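Example complex used in Figure S2.
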Amino acid sequence: MFAIDPGRLDLVREFRERPFGPHSPELQAVLNVLRAARHCQNLLLVCTRPHREWILAEKQPGGLPPRLLTDRVFASLQEAEWHAFRVRWEAVTGQPLPPLDPA
Amino acid sequence: MPRVLGYAEPLSVAPGEEIRFMVGTLDGPRRYRAEVVRVVCGDVAPDALKTVRVPTSIDGEHAGVPQPIHAGSYAVVERPDAFAGLTRFTMHAFIQPTRVPMRPVPQRQVIMGTWAEDRGTGFALLLDEAGALALLLGGRLISLGAPLTARRWYHVAASVDLTARTATLRQAPLAEHTPSLERAIERTLTLDASAQPGAELFLAAARRGIEAGRLATTWHFNGKLDRPALVRRALTSAELAAPGLAIAPEDLLAAWDLGADIDGERVSDRSPNHLHGRTVNAPKRAVTGHNWDGTAMDWRRAPEQYGAIHFHDDDLHDAGWAPSLTTRIPADARSGVYALRLAADGGPDFWVVFYVRPPRRGPRASIAFLASTATYLCYSNYRARMRPGPAELYIGALPTVDTTDLLLMHHPELGGSTYDVHSDGSGVCHVSRRRPLVNVRPTGRLWNLLLDLCLLDWLEAHELPYDVITDDDLHAEGLPLLQDYAVVLTGCHPEYYSREMLDALAAYLGRGGRLMYMGGNGFYWRVSYPASHPGLIEMRRAEDGTRAWVESVGEYYHSSTGEYGGLWRRQGRAPNVLAGVGFVAQGFDRSSYYRRTEAGHDPRARFIFEGIAEDVLGDFGLFGDGAAGLELDAFNTALGSPPWALVVASSENHSNAFQLVNEEMNVSFAGADGQFSAAVRADMVFYEHPAGGAVFSTGSIAYVGSLGHAHHANNISRLTLNVLRRFLDPSPFKPPTSR
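Predicted assembly (842 residues):
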């Protein structure tokens, strides 16, 4: 199985600059792993103010409503994608992302 | 979340006609404000929402009251006299439970009986909280204590003799193709109870009581029920063990044939007593029964193998709310997309969308916008994105909902969409508009109606008069609805089509009509409108295609019409035949652009590109900065695209999230995404119809989201206007003669 190389910060930068694709095949492979990991695949965004505010939420089994993570509030979809990427990277690779150079 | 909800009846009205709104509040009585508006542009960007207030008699503040929704299907036999005072009797049936035990909250599930919770009287054959066969009689419950296995057929019976104070319960798994370690279990238990008073008999539910003047039920059964019967005597063990044994007619109290009247609500009793019943909340009929052997796939060819009904505790046909507001649409009202806007403190507004068609007699516009109301309904109350699963892998981004969508997870009684599964995991094949439709609105997800409003906004910006007609009108009226229009424009995603709707569009083209198919993945699934269930659509996700769930084997034929369900592509009427293109790929993260092709420079296509110098088209737009996105269609003569049609532009460079759909991959292969496969594209197609009309197809759902870019001054807007103007010109089109 493909495993993420935590040293490939170039792919991290690629995602931060362009979260919605098209992606390089290597970044796509990373995203496939992050988004398919069982413990990180249930994220959802709930728009609380149209066009201005989104809250991260976690989908729940058994037909229950999503759990809103009210301390995770974003002003853009890009910001939310970047947050999800970072927390998943750490959850899957076991290593937090180091600070990146300014974009 | 909104605190006040509603729905409209009828869906489509003409000026001067009456419309009723059923309004209900959440969390107790609450005052709300109502106003009728015509919607010109949806909330697609900050400050984009444009509505025009239409004064009516119902404007203003109203006192709202809660109106409950009683979801859950069942059948009821309203003959209390027939079931009174039984002292020796037997209930038996074939069942295939699909939710045992009930989780997360254990609950009883009634197979059949007269049990009434509010009265504490009656009898019922049921599954107890653990999913074991049980008998409830006069408040006494006895159980076999052995939970049934989900999705396995059983013969179940309770033979009751109150004079002997005994009851015999028996559950016997049927021999099937799959091996089982289960054996029949039969026990005779002491039952000290007296004969019960008469009450209506239910299949798959028990009476809860009368609530707000309406019958409410509980303990709904999830699964299939086949050949339920009541016998006037306590059958012996030998008789219980031979479920095929004929019972003398004089001993039969009732023997319901659920395989009869499949297209309607009636439940027929084959006994001499005529204890007929009716179904409530549209359970699924035309389903395989306990004796289905795989030799027949069509219920009409082997009705005896389709003697079951599949009940669900979350089926819903008609919320049955009392009308709250009734008004007459002003006689001079413009045709358009309208809404009753409901506002209450503590939550966002709720939009009850309806459509004002042109006057029944009188002037029409030259342009008709055909609102995809069948598709809107099939997507209505879509909650799949809020349930765990790998949605993000096919979207290519985080799924996004808003607080109004959350209503669906807090109020499961609102019912699901055809993209959802029931609480037992089986697919939702019925959707009804007789309930609040949470996501058919000019706000929220950029999809369906909200995107289609971009097209109306564009027509308004160009001061092009238009009428709004609906799929529902088209299904009911056919060609006469269309024949006076010079041009018919579809919405961005007319995915669900009945045969009647397809026939009408084909007939319209056959009379020289001009069709602008303004979207992607259109004319894809067959749906039917059951005559017996107003407001309902039936669909079956059979055999092939991009499916939110997969139809059960042997259940591909619609119950309402007997039509074979599934993709039109698998039924000789691929979308390509009508539109010149058909669905090939989807992705939901980012859109791309079209490039004018060599065929786009053909003199036949010159009018399309009048005033457009650039070859790259639509590299901008509301959804993902491009006109080619979301769901894409391509030209394919093998599927019926007219060979003389011109592919005037094609999209390219789609993101990795775009994948070929499975019906385009007979054998799965690598490199099927937008970065690797040239087959992942939208084709913009134009063809002249032999009858003098023409068809223009964009092949992309995202297209209409580009029309408004730069205040409608852009190459997609110009191109669309070029096509529309030529299509409005009555000069006939002539196909090339040598192709």
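The longest helix of chain B spans residues 448-461. The radius of gyration of chain B is 28 Å.
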